[in-house]
Design a protein that fits this description.
Chains A, B: Keywords: Cytoplasm, Phosphate transport, Transport. The structure is a homodimer. In chain A, helix 1 packs antiparallel against helix 2, helix 2 (39-70) runs antiparallel to helix 3 (74-107) and helix 5 (144-168) runs antiparallel to helix 6 (177-209). Chain A has a single domain (2-209), classed as Methane Monooxygenase Hydroxylase, Chain G, domain 1 (Up-down Bundle), CATH 1.20.58.220. Chain A has helices at 2-36, 39-70, 74-107, 118-141, 144-168, 177-209. The first copy, chain A, is mainly α. The first copy, chain A, has six helices and no strands. Chain A is elongated, with a radius of gyration of 19 Å. The A-B interface holds A 64, 67-68, 71, 73-74, 77-78, 81, 84-85, 88, 165, 168-169, 173, 176-178, 180-181, 184-185, 188 and B 64, 67-68, 71, 73-74, 77-78, 81, 84-85, 88, 165, 168-169, 173, 176-178, 180-181, 184-185, 188.
Chain lengths: 215, 215
């Protein structure tokens, strides 16, 4: 009985890792669509999100059946509830990738990001993709030290967002209102993806140690 | 035993209603700070958020103890897990009010919103405050018809957001980049508050009927 329980729990974490990998791909492709003005890739990201939503429902069903049938207490209970929350956050990260793809789609065949701002977006997306990749690995390894290290990457994201605001609000910003608005919202989407990554890492720490890291 | 269980469950929903009322106040005050450039009110909203976070923790503790001690199944289990999610969404709505207050604070003693855009922000905030107020009432009444009606207010929010984008991206936008960026982000914050309100309403429908409304 207990063995079946741990098999089911492992299978839920396996599914969470799979979704995290799909989110990692979604962020990468949405950024590619954004920086190349490729409407087809943008559409792919938007339609692939349904698969993430479907897997979320599966994980929820599995977690509920585990809660109902196995009646776990204490640590096990917290683990399953943490898994339910992690899948909610992963789904939001998928939605945020869709938002990035939709900004790209809106400007096709043009490119939403002015050439001199491309490096900033490239850096933001690189940080976000790296964090999502780390989250996928963390869910699989449950490595507490690696989970704690993720918060540092989030500081890099905050720094990049400050840099981009400084540029687009400077007096010699040459691109006008529309790209500034696009960049402000894109910055917000990447920042939120990073926030969710940190939050999932904190939940992994909690699952393993029973304690929530102070943020 | 079962009676104690339902008392505890009612108490959790009572706490959720209290937090929703605090969020309603926070959205209203953040908007007031935003439209008047009142830095003191902005600070109050920012510091009051700690109380919402604290109550969130209390609700989580109560929900966990109910899950551990009473070992609920099926419908009761789903209700408690729904409550855990609702409190997570309410906390996010509080965070979003803080974001609005921080935009206000950044421009003090000035006002972030140009005079001709004040009506748009007033309407967005009125819709958001009304939706949060309805959510508070819904949590208390568990009125399924009222919960379903909330989705219509969300359409009004989407319309307002489209209107504001049209204005700030029009060729004769006179206010330059900074207010446009502020308004784009503010629109995003109010929209997310409304999204969370709809999501909570859907969870209330689910708790009562066992079915999630299609959105």
């Amino acid at each position: 009985m207990r063995e079946a329980y741990y098999d089911q729990l492992d299978s839920i974490f396996g599914q969470l890792g799979t979704i995290a990998r799909e989110v990692e791909v979604a962020v990468g492709r949405a950024t590619q669509a954004l920086l190349t003005g490729d409407g087809e890739i943008a559409e792919q990201v938007i339609s692939a999100d349904a698969s993430i939503d479907r897997q979320r429902e599966e994980i929820e069903d599995n977690a509920f059946s585990l809660l109902s049938l196995q009646q776990p207490v204490a640590g096990d209970l917290r683990t399953i509830v943490a898994a339910l929350r992690m899948v909610g956050e992963l789904e939001r990260m998928g939605d945020l990738s869709v938002h990035v793809a939709k900004v790209a789609r809106l400007r096709v065949p043009g490119v939403a990001v002015p050439p001199d701002m491309v490096p900033t977006i490239e850096q933001m997306s690189a940080v976000a993709i790296d964090m999502v990749g780390q989250v996928a690995a963390l869910i699989e390894s449950r490595d507490v030290d690696a989970a704690k290290a993720l918060a540092e990457d989030d500081e890099e994201m905050d720094r990049l967002r400050r840099v981009s605001f400084r540029e687009l609000l400077s007096n010699d910003w040459p691109h006008g209102v529309e790209p500034a608005v696009d960049l402000a919202l894109l910055g917000r989407y990447y920042e939120r993806i990073a926030d969710h990554a940190v939050s999932i890492a904190n939940r992994v720490v909690f699952v393993v140690t029973g304690e929530t890291p102070s943020s």
